[in-house]
Amino acid sequence: MSEPEVILFDLDDTIVDFTWNKVSAWRDACELASGRTGADTEALHASIEAIGRRYWADEARSERGRRDLRAAGAEIVATAFEELGVTASTELRRMVSDHYRDLRDGGIRLFPRAIEVLEELRGRGHRLGLVTNGSQQEQRGKIERFDLEGHFEHIQIEGEFGLGKPHDEAYRHALERMGAAAERTWFIGDNIEWDVSAPQRHGMFGVWVDAPGVGLPTGSSHAPDRVIRNIVELL
Ligand SMILES: [Mg+2]
After folding, report:
1. What DSSP state is assigned to residue 190?
2. Which residues surround ligand 1, an ion (CB under 5 A)?
3. Domain made up of 6-18+109-234: CATH architecture
4. Which residues of 151-176 are buried (b: 16+ CB within 10 A; e: fewer)?
5. Which of 60, 84, 119, 164 is the most buried (most CB within 10 A)?
6. pTM given for the model
């Protein structure tokens, strides 16, 4: 593949390390819940993880949840309490999920050398765009906090545009706004469907960020054009 004219980036877990402290944040929140209700910390944590996986795997529910992450967290915690037969007030359920969210949000950080990567790619003449799912408040908050805006010619946030990945219109709009031909565009991200396979269907080159380096499960229908563990490898 020839050098791309345009590179479209995902934000969370691609440029910004969003989930590195997820497990410890939930554990801490479960300890808080355990202290208030007597629920077993480990059982609660396991239940929240399983319910969370189910919750975010459902496309429609996940889209709704992204609009209000705090409400989504409270719903997941409520379901976990219910499944474990633990009685907890709405206030406590909210407190537990907010505790998790505050810890995790406090931990969000850039991947090492992320800014250097963006600057270097721009210096080499590539034009960059950002296409991210999530609410305006959450995503703009991160863009401002890490001063990312100036690196991108086009920033497309699901909550602002009205549609997110993997809706066809999200990719079409990004290409149109960048004035880019799909075959001269790379899409880089950690979500194999949203950031790799869907962009490939639109004619783009799909680069999968496989941070843990676990690879795709055997028999997977996804076929990224390139696999990296960190965007530093783009340099
Ligand atoms: Mg991501």
Report:
1. S
2. 10, 12-13, 190
3. 3-Layer(aba) Sandwich (3.40)
4. bbebbbbbbebebbbbbeebbebbbe
5. 164
6. 0.93
Tell me if 149 sits within 8 A of 168, measured CB to CB: no
Spatial neighbors of 226 by CB under 8 A, at least 6 apart, are 205, 206, 207, 208
Give 93 Cα–ligand 1 centroid separation in angstroms: 27
**What are the extents of the domains in the chain?**
6-18+109-234, 22-107
* Residues composing the chain: 235
* 37 C-alpha to ligand 1 centroid (Å): 34
Q: How far apart are the first and last CA of the chain?
A: 15
Rounded-to-integer distance, Cα 22 and Cα 27, Å = 9
Q: Distance from the CA of 52 to the center of ligand 1, in angstroms?
A: 16
pLDDT 10s digits, 10-59 = 999 999 999 899 999 999 999 999 999 999 999 999 999 999 999 999 99
Return the number of other C-beta atoms located less than 10 Å from residue 181's C-beta. Answer: 12
Pairwise CA distance, residues 6 & 185, whole Å = 5
